């Protein structure tokens, strides 16, 4: 089953339609079905209030409500199982106390009794019964403990409260009882502050590629980098993730600022569209976007192996540097760009409409990346190098 197009792709495709081009022209340029582009446009009109129908947010809310109902039904089943287990190990008096707590939170007594496996008559009999000597003593101890805790400005824990009761008040009580009553009253002492040893952050990611970009199958080695280009509004930044096997751009992100989320969004798009198996290498440079915690953590969660080339050496990331050179020559430097949106749409169409689907590469036997992957998909691939 083909994976859905990411939201960035759909938005940029609709921007091309709104610029005055026909649906057929844009669909043919991007290699997508004209009917799909038509559906995206109709949904966009509904979302903007230009056409009647449920908006994307309303559809999402309905789907969320259905999911919530399903979760609640599962929670009820789990609670019933848990109640059956509690009934076997928790004495009725403790369950009566739980019913009282639930009733105080707004739960009906009949429902609480049903879920906890006790009778309503038994609960009401327990609730109307005079407190035992133990309950009276615990109530008195609870007041003493609360006063001691408050006098310590909330700093005393179980052991110090116990010491104050025994040595200052002459009260005979065990420290476990003090701990139980403090937990019931939600009282706790301040934790001891232990100063951690500061250490200078060091980058421990090594170069796993060493200028060998040849791979025998898809999703074995990805390379990534960021470029910038000026417009009359200011600079625009683009980050790409390229599969070195087919030279296909599998992830991209475009933004007006060069931050860590620019690289993380491009990597996330690649992961979502390709679902790589663990062991795929993601190779970049020592820029702060690729050494940031967000980027490396996103890569590790997906099972990717981060790799960094040496500082200031373009040959350590030659595949993506070659891609930037081609895009500069074939698109960016051919005209002066007025707005960031204009340039962003052009970059999107160059990547998805031209580079991935039409541009022939000598390294691929003069096939385009999509064509190359389709023709080699049935062939067995060697394990990761």
TrEMBL record:
<dbReference type="InterPro" id="IPR025948">
    <property type="entry name" value="HTH-like_dom"/>
</dbReference>
<dbReference type="Pfam" id="PF13333">
    <property type="entry name" value="rve_2"/>
</dbReference>
<feature type="coiled-coil region">
    <location>
        <begin position="55"/>
        <end position="89"/>
    </location>
</feature>
<dbReference type="InterPro" id="IPR012337">
    <property type="entry name" value="RNaseH-like_sf"/>
</dbReference>
<dbReference type="InterPro" id="IPR050900">
    <property type="entry name" value="Transposase_IS3/IS150/IS904"/>
</dbReference>
<keyword id="KW-0175">Coiled coil</keyword>
<dbReference type="InterPro" id="IPR009057">
    <property type="entry name" value="Homeodomain-like_sf"/>
</dbReference>
<dbReference type="InterPro" id="IPR001584">
    <property type="entry name" value="Integrase_cat-core"/>
</dbReference>
<protein>
    <recommendedName>
        <fullName>Integrase catalytic domain-containing protein</fullName>
    </recommendedName>
</protein>
<comment type="function">
    <text>Involved in the transposition of the insertion sequence.</text>
</comment>
<dbReference type="GO" id="GO:0004803">
    <property type="term" value="F:transposase activity"/>
</dbReference>
<dbReference type="InterPro" id="IPR048020">
    <property type="entry name" value="Transpos_IS3"/>
</dbReference>
<feature type="domain" description="Integrase catalytic">
    <location>
        <begin position="214"/>
        <end position="377"/>
    </location>
</feature>
<dbReference type="GO" id="GO:0003677">
    <property type="term" value="F:DNA binding"/>
</dbReference>
<dbReference type="Pfam" id="PF01527">
    <property type="entry name" value="HTH_Tnp_1"/>
</dbReference>
<dbReference type="GO" id="GO:0015074">
    <property type="term" value="P:DNA integration"/>
</dbReference>
<dbReference type="Pfam" id="PF13276">
    <property type="entry name" value="HTH_21"/>
</dbReference>
<dbReference type="InterPro" id="IPR036397">
    <property type="entry name" value="RNaseH_sf"/>
</dbReference>
<dbReference type="GO" id="GO:0006313">
    <property type="term" value="P:DNA transposition"/>
</dbReference>
<dbReference type="Pfam" id="PF00665">
    <property type="entry name" value="rve"/>
</dbReference>
<dbReference type="InterPro" id="IPR002514">
    <property type="entry name" value="Transposase_8"/>
</dbReference>
């Amino acid at each position: 089953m083909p994976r859905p197009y990411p939201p960035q792709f759909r938005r940029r495709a609709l921007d091309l339609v709104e610029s005055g081009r026909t649906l057929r022209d844009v669909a043919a340029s991007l290699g997508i079905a004209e009917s799909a582009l038509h559906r995206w446009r109709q949904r966009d009109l509904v979302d903007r209030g230009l056409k009647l129908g449920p908006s994307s947010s309303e559809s999402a809310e309905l789907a969320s409500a259905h999911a919530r109902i399903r979760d609640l039904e599962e929670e009820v089943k789990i609670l019933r199982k848990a109640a059956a287990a509690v009934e076997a190990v928790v004495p009725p008096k403790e369950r009566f106390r739980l019913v009282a707590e639930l009733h105080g939170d707004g739960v009906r007594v009949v429902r609480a009794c049903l879920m906890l496996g006790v009778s309503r008559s038994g609960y009401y009999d327990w609730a109307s019964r005079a407190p035992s000597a133990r309950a009276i003593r615990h109530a008195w101890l609870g007041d003493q403990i609360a006063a001691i805790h408050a006098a310590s400005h909330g700093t005393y824990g179980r052991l110090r409260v116990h010491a104050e009761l025994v040595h200052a008040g002459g009260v005979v009580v065990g420290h476990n009882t003090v701990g139980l009553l403090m937990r019931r009253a939600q009282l706790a002492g301040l934790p001891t502050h232990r100063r951690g040893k500061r250490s200078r952050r060091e980058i421990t990611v090594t170069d796993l590629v060493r200028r060998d970009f040849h791979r025998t199958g898809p999703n074995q080695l990805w390379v990534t980098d960021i470029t910038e280009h000026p417009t009359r509004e200011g600079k625009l930044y683009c980050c790409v993730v390229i599969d070195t096997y087919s030279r296909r751009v599998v992830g991209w992100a475009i933004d007006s600022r060069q931050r860590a989320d620019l690289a993380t969004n491009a990597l996330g798009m690649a992961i979502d569209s390709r679902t790589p198996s663990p062991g795929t290498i993601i190779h970049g440079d020592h820029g702060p976007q690729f050494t940031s915690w967000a980027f490396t953590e996103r890569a590790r969660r997906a099972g990717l192996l981060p790799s960094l080339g040496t500082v200031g050496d373009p040959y350590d990331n030659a595949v993506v540097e070659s891609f930037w050179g081609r895009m500069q020559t074939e698109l960016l430097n051919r005209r002066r760009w007025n707005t960031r949106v204009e340039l962003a749409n052009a970059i999107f169409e160059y990547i998805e409409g031209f580079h991935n689907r039409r541009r022939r590469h000598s390294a691929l036997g003069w096939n385009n990346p999509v064509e190359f992957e389709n023709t080699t998909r049935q062939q067995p691939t060697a394990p990761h190098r």
